[in-house]
Structure formats: structure tokens, C-alpha cells
Design brief:
Elements: H1 3-18, H2 29-34, H3 39-62, H4 72-94, H5 96-102, H6 113-121, H7 128-158, E1 160-161, E2 164-165, H8 180-201, H9 206-209
Antiparallel strand pairs: 1-2
Helix pairs in contact: 1-7, 3-4, 3-6, 3-7, 4-6, 6-7, 7-8
Length: 213
């Protein structure tokens, strides 16, 4: 891997792992906790956000030298809202059931701080290709975060995965997992796991690496 390829890979992996929006920066918590009652909802919201991220950051980057600093935030929001509207209509056309399941959180992608933050911190300062690669990494990282919650909550809360039953008729679903508190519990468990892993990777003794509640 040459220097250019390594830089491209590094741009992408920043959002996937080192600066994961859900597990590291803890951003976009409204959709993270609200729509992750199933894996399919999680993937759908993640892919929608990924599309808006990549397209809006690419356009923001293209317009970075033409946009006056005084109105840049307003311009970013208009750009983001344009792509969110496209996603909104696309989901309605593909599946009304999915559209109803995601509800208002599709439109709320407009104010998702991950997208506006990428536009301001990265896309407005870099050429289109690096901006879109970085945005794609953030979108993939966000999707992974949503899916991690959605899989756990669907398995425990409904006994299914992507709608396919995993257990027998005797399985008793954990109803709390499909309620709002379930999202907090699962997110907290994942954050504890990653904190423990980071401490272990840093070479801390086992006693210190064990997360404390």
C-alpha cells in the first residue's frame, strides 16, 4: 500500500473505528436509540444517513470556495435538506411500512450533528474526493453502530433477526428491549465493552481494564 492509498484508507477508517460516531463521539443519539428496535430499521437509517453524508459533503466541498463564510451554515443545511428530501421520497416509494417505522427520524437527518459536523470540520476544508471518502467512513461507522444496537434489541426483544425467528415457541421476549430504556441499556453495554477493549489494548492490568459501573 503506497502513501496515497494509505491516506485514503486512513480517511475512511477514521469514522469507521477511531472516531466512530456512535461509540466514540456519541453523536446522533436520537435515531440511534429510537429506530434500532430491529436490524432492518437500523440498516435502513444507516444507509439513508450514509447517502446524505456522502452527497452533501461532496457538494459542500465543491462549493467551499464559492460559499461566503457568513452564510455557510445556512448553505450546508439547504444542501443537506435537499438530499434528505430525496431520501424521504425514495423510502416512501420503496416501502411504506419501513417509512412508517422510521417515522420523523428520516426528516430529522437534516439536523443530525454528524452530517453538519462533517460538512463544517472536513468537507469545507478539503477537495471533494477526500471529503466524500471521509463522509463514507462516518456513514459506515454510524451504520455499524446502529446495527450493533438493532441486532441485540431485536434478538432479545422479539426473538428474531431480520424478521426470522431464532428461538422456539417457548422463548419469552425481553419486552424492555423494544422500549426506549432498552436502547440505553444496550448502548451502555456496548460502550462498556469498547472501553474495556481499549484499556486491554493499551496494556493496562486486567484489574484496571475491567469496566466499573
Amino acid at each position: 500500500m503506497n502513501a496515497a492509498q494509505y491516506k485514503t484508507w486512513d480517511e475512511f477508517m477514521e469514522g469507521v473505528w477511531r472516531q466512530n460516531p456512535v461509540f466514540v463521539m456519541v453523536l446522533g443519539m436520537c435515531p440511534t436509540l429510537a429506530v434500532t428496535v430491529s436490524a432492518i430499521n437500523a440498516i435502513s437509517m444507516g444507509v439513508a444517513t450514509l447517502f446524505v453524508l456522502v452527497c452533501s459533503c461532496g457538494l459542500v466541498s465543491l462549493m467551499r470556495k464559492l460559499t461566503p463564510k457568513e452564510v455557510r451554515i445556512a448553505v450546508y443545511i439547504v444542501i443537506i435538506a435537499t438530499f434528505v428530501t430525496a431520501v424521504d421520497y425514495a423510502i416512501q416509494a420503496i416501502s411504506l411500512a419501513l417509512y412508517d417505522a422510521l417515522g420523523a427520524f428520516i426528516q430529522l437527518i437534516v439536523v443530525n450533528c454528524i452530517i453538519l459536523g462533517r460538512a463544517e470540520a472536513h468537507a469545507a476544508k478539503n477537495p471533494p474526493l477526500p471529503a466524500m471518502i471521509n463522509a463514507a467512513g462516518m456513514g459506515v461507522g454510524f451504520t455499524i453502530g446502529l446495527l450493533a444496537l438493532g441486532v441485540v434489541r431485536e434478538i432479545l426483544g422479539a426473538g428474531t433477526l431480520f424478521g426470522v425467528a431464532l428461538f422456539g415457541a417457548g422463548f419469552q421476549p425481553w419486552v424492555i428491549m423494544v422500549l426506549p430504556p432498552g436502547g440505553f441499556f444496550v448502548l451502555g453495554a456496548w460502550l462498556l465493552l469498547f472501553s474495556w477493549w481499549a484499556r486491554r489494548k493499551a496494556g493496562l492490568p486486567a484489574k484496571e481494564a475491567t469496566p466499573h459501573v
